[in-house]
Amino acid sequence: MQLFRKEILWLGDYYQVGVENVPFPQIAPGYLLFDALIKNKAFEIKFLERYLYFIEDVFDPTRVEDILQEMIDKIGIEWIKHEETWPYYKYYDTWILILNDMSLFNEERNQWIKPHIEELLENAREE
Known about the structure:
Elements: E1 9-11, E2 15-17, H1 29-37, H2 41-58, H3 61-85, H4 92-126
């Protein structure tokens, strides 16, 4: 299993990259409000600063990897009991592959998206 579309950034009418072949709806209702708010310079800067914070801190690849490893450690112990009780459910290896894909996706997405947000923020501050 592999997670796709890590190189897509769609922020309503404000900014889009990598969406050429993605079937987004013509108008996403949640973005009508966003499109209006992002026209306010103070909101734009605050939004981009907050987005950058999430990229750098909340979704920091090391932090995400630590969280996933903690899940593996905790759930892995319970998985043994689970397989003893229900031996016909053998999905541990698949689960580990999914978590590894999540970690790789986060790391690659983080490296790809951060320069876009930094550039948008720099441009917003200069205007």
